Amino acid sequence: MVRKKFSKLWQTFFHKLRQEEGASIVEFAIMVPIFIFFIFAVIQLSAVLIIENALEASIREAARYGISGQGSGARDSEIRSRIQTVARDYSGGLINPSNLTITINSYPNFQALDANTSASNGSGNGSQAVKYQVQYTWNTTIPIFGTSNLIVLKAQTPVMNEGFEN
Question: Could you tell me the pTM of the whole model?
């Protein structure tokens, strides 16, 4: 008799374990935070790629402008202004142009650029090598890419100025 009661109790216990009422809400509660995290990660990664593309486009545009020797005596400030404008426009407003760090250094030739010799500031003279660099520190919404919300994005390009007259 005790054995029958124990057996019946055991069967009832396992029957209750096999019931699936409420299982979908538990699965939903486990999966939703993970799904939302991945949605935000995709959005953050997309924004990083947009900013990176905008920085590359701005440097490319500045190099095209500076390589030909265009501009008046304030050529360097015109190049910097062009970098800021293109970065802002291409990023859809994600980049604050005043937070860009722009470096323009000129070298006598490409060998001097590769050797990291001393450079002079500015877009240089005709037939000089010039390295355009831009850096932007972006504050992400959620620290998906590590422990810090800050991501430093950079773009650079070396060019050889045309043989324009100074």
Answer: 0.78
101-107 and 150-160 strand pairing? unpaired
pLDDT per residue over 91-118, tens digit each? 999 999 999 999 998 888 888 877 777 7
CB 101 within 8 A of CB 135: yes
Spell out the domain ranges in the chain. 27-160
At residue 159's C-alpha, the angle toward residues 88 and 156, to 5°, is 40
- Distance separating alpha carbons of residues 148 and 59, to the nearest angstrom: 27
**Helix (H), strand (E) at residue 8:** helix 2-18
Q: Alpha-carbon torsion 84, 85, 86, 87, what sign?
A: positive
- CA 62 to CA 87: how far, in whole Å? 11
Residue for token digits 């019931």? Answer: 19
Here the tokens at position 56 are 């590359």
